[in-house]
Amino acid sequence: MANASAGRSVLSRIMQVLGTFDVDSAFLTVSQLSQRSGLPLATTHRVVAELEQFGLLERERDKTYRIGVRLWEIACRTPGALGLREIAMPYLQDVHFSVRQHAQLGILQGHEVLFLERLSTRNAVVNVTLIGGRLPLHASSSGLVLLAHAPGSFQAEVLASGLVKYTEDTVQSPAHLRRLLAQIREQGHAVGSGFIHPAARGIAVPVYGLKESVVAAISVVVPNDSAPALPTVRLLKDAARQISAALQAAYLPPGGPQSAGGGKYRALVHSSRNSMEFLEQHRKDHPL
Amino acid sequence: MANASAGRSVLSRIMQVLGTFDVDSAFLTVSQLSQRSGLPLATTHRVVAELEQFGLLERERDKTYRIGVRLWEIACRTPGALGLREIAMPYLQDVHFSVRQHAQLGILQGHEVLFLERLSTRNAVVNVTLIGGRLPLHASSSGLVLLAHAPGSFQAEVLASGLVKYTEDTVQSPAHLRRLLAQIREQGHAVGSGFIHPAARGIAVPVYGLKESVVAAISVVVPNDSAPALPTVRLLKDAARQISAALQAAYLPPGGPQSAGGGKYRALVHSSRNSMEFLEQHRKDHPL
């Protein structure tokens, strides 16, 4: 099937098909993919066959398709997602082990917060955060931290776009939200008690990258009870400080006194000190 | 630039560009992408522009490109990668906390083991495992477990394709490897002492899915010293049993007495019990 407009439209069709998969619908038939993507059935068949050929889709025994492991493998080369998560992980695990509820890492993506990691325990409080999932900025504590440190023009856009209401406690008025953002900047943390679910409280702090810019938020989701937030805030601030230092060390030129070991691997890999030194010195001689 | 062969070759060029990024080269210029992918410079420019438009590549200030967060976001819809990792994670964290070295989850992908997760600590022993990275089956303990449970024809292919030598202790002879695989099947675990690095020992056990098939391996990488392996093997076997049970519960039809909560979300999300019930009951009424 020749197509004179080639390039752009092929990728746009591919993205339409891939974008149809969601946590609601991880397994889809070609008909469902066609219906939900709005692409004609014949086109969908062709795109699906191509994607399957490259391992980007996998066919199940029941003839549904799911997104392929090969796509995930390529996605492990994202400094902005997996790389950041690798750097933050040991500190996030410490927070998780202390709090024994949910501990998460989120970044600003579009007008939402996108979660790069969520560590949970079986008996933790209700929490709607999904890995690779998004939440509105005004409703989640991580989102509030990211919004509080965003430029004024961006804040104005978010405020103008409407504030989804989850519970009686979700911030609804732009004036209230502006006051809350000022308070978050001043105190250095956000607390959202029952903003998304009455039983849950989010507590978040910013993670700074180079040049004092906020590049992420780490947060916990804990029961919305009478427990004081401050001990948890201190725990999160300690972890955020360590993540910021690790992030800066990972992006300084290799070999300097403040730089992390691991050479060019540091943007994607954060393993033990010995492993990073080994990677830096030996990977070239002995490709893995 | 119209191209009459359209579809397949467009995706093949896209894959050539995306496949050029690696942990060695997370940031690349268009010229480097062209050189390494073997695509003409003009074609590379066009493919890069398209990928950037959809967020699959991100342009840095120094004009290099990196793989985009949007690609990672789509990859979070992979039941075979992120989904499996979500199910295994709480148990893998328990192993990691007990061993305080590296704890990892790997699957068979092609003729190699692909690692879906690696939890590490700062002072852990040297370890070459990367998240999203691959290792040869005969050299890594996880790979040995997966190979031991693979069909005979697959084993024959792997044995015939040559056994890369990392250290003096890497298994080199097909006969030796066959004896080792038989032993692994009998004992239910693999120990690789110094197979990849003299200082490191890998210990791995299989994770069973439905119908007694081996779907993954969990492993630790610990110092290659005189410490007995059996206590760690027991720890891993306990975790693997729990992961297998969680995996089976996640793939039984929703609502049954043995099924995990969370309805159709279970293939991708494993959060706390309350969160899974909430997702199952409320996500439809109140889209997140």
What integer is the average pLDDT of chain A? 92
SSE-based structural type of chain A: alpha+beta
Low-confidence stretches of chain A: 1-8
Largest interface: chains, residues each: A-B, 94 and 94 residues
Enter the CATH topology name of the largest domain in chain A: Beta-Lactamase
Envelope shape of chain A: globular
Counting DSSP H or I runs of 4 or more residues, the number of helices of chain A is 10
Main sheet attributes: strand count, strand direction, barrel closure of chain A: 6 strands, antiparallel
What separation lies between the terminal Cα atoms of chain A?
40 Å
- CATH architectural label of the largest domain in chain A: 2-Layer Sandwich
Secondary-structure element pattern of chain A, one letter each: HHHEEHHEEEHHHEEEHH
Query: What oligomeric state do these chains adopt?
Result: homodimer
CATH class (first level) name of the largest domain in chain A: Alpha Beta
Helix-residue proportion of chain A: 40-55%
- Count the strands of chain A? 8
**What fraction of residues of chain A sit in β-strands?**
15-25%
The CATH H-level homologous superfamily of the largest domain in chain A:
GAF domain
Pfam families (chains A, B): HTH_IclR (PF09339), IclR_C (PF01614)
Organism (chains A, B): Arthrobacter gallicola
Keywords (chains A, B): DNA-binding, Transcription, Transcription regulation
Domain IclR-ED (chains A, B): 70-249
